Amino acid sequence: MAGARSENAMADVSGQAARDQSVDLVLRGATVLTMDGQNSCFDGDIAINEGEIVALGASLPHRGAEEIALAGQVVLPGFGNAHTHECMERGWFEDLGFTEWLNVYAQPKDRAYRPEHQHAAAGLTQLELIRSGFTSFIDMFRFPEVAAGVARASGLRATFAPQLVETPVGVGESLESSLALLESVTRDPSPLIRAWLGPHGLYSCSEETIQATARIARDHNVGLHTHLAESRDEVSIIAERSGLTPTAYLDQLIGMGPDILVAHAVELTPADIELLAERGVAVAHCPTSNLKLGNQIAPVSELLAAGVRVGLGTDSMMSNNILDPFAEMRMAALSAKYRSGDPAALPAQRVLELAIHGSADALQLGGQVGSIELGKRADVIAVDLASPHLWPLLDSAEYGGNLVEHLVYAARASDVTTTIVDGRVLMSERRVRTLDEGEIRLEVAAMARDLARRAGVESFVNQRLPKQRS
Ligand SMILES: [Zn+2]
Q: How many angstroms separate the alpha carbon of residue 216 from the centre of ligand 1?
């Protein structure tokens, strides 16, 4: 079901907006899918000033310092990526089971990372996020201060949860570097950059460290992000250690609450699902990564039925391999239908809500972004509906519309033309303004080779890397 269209009601919902008002930015002539409480949709304009949505209407009188014509496009709130790692090892370690992939390839490679590799990885990841229509994300990886520096340039709304790993030694961040990030973000505050705590998982950190991260996060009033119940191997390891499920064990260690965002939550008992709901924990559902690494499909319909907060994440480009909210929505819908045998499971409208409202809420940004309403921060994207794979578009008044169905089942990251965060235009007409794509491409090519060499996986990887041109 597409958004209910209400042109008349939206004629000028700004009400008292002054005629001929000058604002920073006006988006003109789009179909606007507001994702507000009424799920309303209208054809018209959006006025943005000082990063805030200040007027919506069929034909706004406002004058923008910049105006973007978006006829034939749909404008909707930007997507939130509720779980990713800013790396660059795309296509390196393929077709491997989760435990071998993690222990033999991913973590030893993480040990080889240096700040210069992280700079390239953050540039690549953020470039792809902007191009795909993500406006906010949480990163759990290495050298977060370097990645945060890139985010200050890219303009994305970013949260950094340094990936704290104790076992094996030397492959991740530490309590000290996590604290250093908190301090540097406090010292140089930005409304778009936040620091959280990011213990990698129950099997890679000690009990004491998991408890310390929760204490630090709560002392600083920030969130905590961790992997939870991703694989059957994790269930066995934790059962042996504690006699509990991973979910019950995490709750016993730190007392879970709404400040906790867990990635995956695949291996859950009915009691685990109840516990996640009761504690108000948010879950980042990452169906592509789970399927690709041979893990199971998370019980999303059951989580939602129990009232658990659920957003969508891509996980990293190593295990996905694309950071594409449309592909992730499609995978979430299809995998829920496959798991239950019920084609009505996770319908299109619900999936879009998970990707936008669910992820914004999981990132604790729900009050600021996630809908196109007066007073919300202007994190919005435009999707071009001109390509044949998005034909035909049915008129909503006459036929009920199929816009939401197109976004979930047919659209692609490359259909995104415009990405705006906090009122700043990061991409327009598919041209990224805030990052230098050519420069990042060269940097990634050089740094990827260097990383593969340092990690000792050069021979494994070099056949997959493009030949270097002299
Ligand atoms: Zn992950």
A: 21
| Domains by residue range for the chain, with CATH | 4-77+369-431 (2.30.40.10), 79-362 (3.20.20.140)
Give the gyration radius of the chain's Cα atoms. Answer: 22
CA 142–ligand 1 middle distance (angstroms): 12
Q: How far is the CA of 286 from the centre of ligand 1 (A)?
A: 9
- Ligand 1 center–CA 450 separation, angstroms: 23
Under 8 Å between Cβ of 96 and 51: no
Using a CB cutoff of 5 Å, list residues around ligand 1, an ion: 315
Given its phi and psi angles, is residue 221 left (phi above 0), alpha (psi -120 to 50 degrees) or beta?
Answer: left
Q: Which of 98, 119, 116 is nearest to 293 (CA)?
A: 98
Q: For CA atoms 224, 230, 235, 237, give the dihedral sign.
A: negative
pTM above 0.70, yes or no: yes
Question: How many angstroms separate the alpha carbon of residue 302 from the centre of ligand 1?
Answer: 22
Identify which of 194, 186, 151 has the alpha carbon closest to the alpha carbon of residue 424: 151
Distance from Cα 272 to the centre of ligand 1, integer Å: 20
Interval between CA 328 and ligand 1 midpoint (Å): 15
pLDDT single digits (tens) 326-377: 999 999 999 999 999 999 999 999 999 999 999 999 999 999 999 999 999 9
> Hey, what's the torsion of the CAs at 298, 303, 304, 307, to 10 degrees?
-160
Distance, CA 285 to ligand 1 centroid (Å)?
Answer: 11
Q: For the residues 59-69, what does the mean pLDDT come to?
A: 97
CA of 218 to the centre of ligand 1 (A): 22
Q: Which of 215, 135, 131 is nearest to 179 (CA)?
A: 215
